[in-house]
Amino acid sequence: MPANLASALITKLAVSNHLDGDDIRAIQSLRIRERHLGAREIIVADGSRPGECCLIVEGFASRSKTTADGERQVLSLHIPGDIPDLQSLHLGIMDHDLVSLSPCALGFIAHAELTEVTARHPHLAAALWRETLIDGSIFREWIVNVGRRAALQRMAHLLIEVHERLEAIGRTRGGEFSLPITQIDLGDCLGLSVVHTNRTLQALRGERLVETDKSGFNLLDQERLKELAGFDRTYLHLTPSS
Amino acid sequence: MPANLASALITKLAVSNHLDGDDIRAIQSLRIRERHLGAREIIVADGSRPGECCLIVEGFASRSKTTADGERQVLSLHIPGDIPDLQSLHLGIMDHDLVSLSPCALGFIAHAELTEVTARHPHLAAALWRETLIDGSIFREWIVNVGRRAALQRMAHLLIEVHERLEAIGRTRGGEFSLPITQIDLGDCLGLSVVHTNRTLQALRGERLVETDKSGFNLLDQERLKELAGFDRTYLHLTPSS
DNA sequence: CGGACTGTTGATTCGAATCAAAACCGGTGG
DNA sequence: CCACCGGTTTTGATTCGAATCAACAGTCCG
After folding, report:
1. pLDDT value at position A214?
2. N or C: which end of chain A has fewer CB within 10 A?
3. A137 within 8 A of A129, measured Cβ to Cβ
4. Cβ of residue B126 closer than 8 Å to a chain A Cβ
5. Protein A210 CA to nucleic acid D1 C1', in Å?
6. Distance (Å, rounded) from C-alpha A187 to C-alpha B41?
7. What's the pTM?
8. Could you give the CA distance from residue A185 to residue A211 in angstroms, rounded to a whole number?
9. What is the three-state SS of chain A?
10. Chain B residue numbers touching A142 (CB-CB < 8 A)
């Protein structure tokens, strides 16, 4: 019901899906419980069995896993409009953590509510399924990123990805975008140590490719960055029915 | 129609889903076009727009991406009962290759056929959605594997994963299982060079943890391997509605 | 002001890549 | 039957990218 909560979801879904009036009304009729969190709070914990899904209305979140010997790996970054734990609707048990990066406005939607709405709106169900598939596609690219790209390319690739995704929902100003992430977490995204993350970032700055400040990044030369990273946006599936 | 084709799918789906008689009849009524391929053939190519999904009836396949500068990364390994390109049903364009590892018996099912059956059987649709979510969960673990585990742990983790998945569909004899993969491809799974893959495998053999032959592996001490790899099977979601 | 966290720097070590060559293996054809 | 071929596995030597170790500086905040 609160228009602003649902609208974040509608904007995001519309990037990759054709939504008709019926779908939009169905989304607007969802009961969404609003909640506000600070930075670095656990939203949903590994091993838990959530009964609702979490929509990011404002702010940033990440999903991560910690290995048996305490090494952390970030699996994905999430932006407004994302439902990072949509998979919990059908998987039941969480196999990773969902954590806020920045202070967040979140909307929680009960599984029962989603089950019901997808049953009555198969087209919307397909759109949500598609969102989880795009999620999977981004995971695949991250496997390539940590598996086969050198540190510099790896970081460039990540920054372009986030820029493209934010651009699609209208949250960039040129090459600039907000992403309040520490170098520690950035390293955990890239499978690098903090020290090397720091040096790699300096290299990108030195090449005049990227500027950073506390709250975000500025991509100074997107063309050259894409060239460097070997970036191909296909995997983001940012247009409907592509 | 051909019972043996559908039964591979039924066996696999039943591992992670509760299927009722209606679901099973729906699967058995699917029109599945059978095809046989040799080893190392491209089943579906990156960039293509397939009109059907590919069920593995017999044999093994892998999905992989190649970076701009020619580095290959394997994203997943697939076993009988898997539909490795199920995501194409909703994503349209392939963002990676699907390739046979061994000679395969495949069953192709038209997208239209799947769309129709999922519309009429929402419970089956949920099961297929769930399969794609498990796919995604395995990708997440692979990100951790290449991002944060050392070569020895990494290889141990992969071998245990494949063993667990094959065991669930009844295709292991104790620690033994078939997986006809070259060290080149194994390296591409793990983000390692062939040389280092070879040495890592020798280390596992030296520890009397693993035996290999042309066609597969024998895990000599699963407990110790799991301990070494820090293996937690949760992410495989091998029980229904867990 | 002090403390906790984050960012930065330098020195050193180490795991894995690379380079290069040889051994092995199954298939093929003379 | 054996020579040969391409692909794969193995070995050794060397290099290199990134991790680790160890300080120190910067910043935010109570």
Report:
1. 84
2. N
3. no
4. yes
5. 67
6. 37
7. 0.97
8. 18
9. CCHHHHHHHHHHHHHHCCCCHHHHHHHHCCCCEEEEECCCCEEECCCCCCCEEEEEEECCEEEEEECCCCCEEEEEEECCCCCCCCCHHHHCCCCCEEEECCCEEEEEEEHHHHHHHHHHCHHHHHHHHHHHHHHHHHHHHHHHHHHHCCHHHHHHHHHHHHHHHHHHCCCCECCEEECCCCHHHHHHHHCCCHHHHHHHHHHHHHCCCEEEECCEEEECCHHHHHHHHCCCHHHHCCCCCC
10. 139, 143
Q: Which of A118, A213, A240, A157 is nearest to B73 (CA)?
A: A157
- Interatomic distance B188 CA / D11 C1' (Å): 21
Q: What does the alpha-carbon distance between residue B54 and residue B73 come to, in Å, rounded to a whole number?
A: 21
Q: How far is the CA of A151 from the C1' of D16 (A)?
A: 13
Selection from B74, B28, B88, B94 nearest residue B179 by Cα: B74
- Asked if the C-beta of A157 comes within 8 angstroms of chain B's C-beta atoms, the answer is no
Length of chain A: 242
Which residue on chain B is closest to A142 by alpha carbon?
B143
How many contacts, defined by CB atoms under 8 Å, are there between A and B? 136
> Letter for the amino acid at A203?
A
Structure tokens at A192: 């690098």
Contact: A91, B119; criterion CB under 8 Å: no
Contact list, A234 vs chain B (CB under 8 Å)? 47, 93, 95
Q: Could you read off the pLDDT tens digit of each residue along chain B, which spans 242 residues?
A: 456 899 999 999 999 999 999 999 999 999 999 999 999 999 999 999 999 999 999 999 999 999 999 999 999 999 999 999 999 999 999 999 999 999 999 999 999 999 999 999 999 999 999 999 999 999 999 999 999 999 999 999 999 999 999 999 999 999 999 999 999 999 999 999 999 999 999 999 999 999 999 899 999 999 999 999 999 999 999 999 75
Among B47, B135, B232, the residue with its CB nearest the CB of A136 is B135
Burial class (CB in 10 A: 0-12, 13-18, 19+), B25: exposed
The pair of structure tokens assigned to B233 is 């099977």
**pLDDT the model gives residue B1:** 46
Q: Closest partner residue to A230 among B67, B122, B242, by Cβ? A: B67
Closest to A93 (Cβ–Cβ): which among B90, B132, B234? B234
Each residue's pLDDT tens digit, A30-66: 999 999 999 999 999 999 999 999 999 999 999 999 9
Mean pLDDT of A102-116: 97
pLDDT at B3: 60
Which pLDDT does position B2 carry in this prediction? Answer: 54
Confidence of residue A203 (pLDDT cuts 50, 70, 90): very high
Say yes or no for a CB contact (<8 Å) between B144 and A73. yes
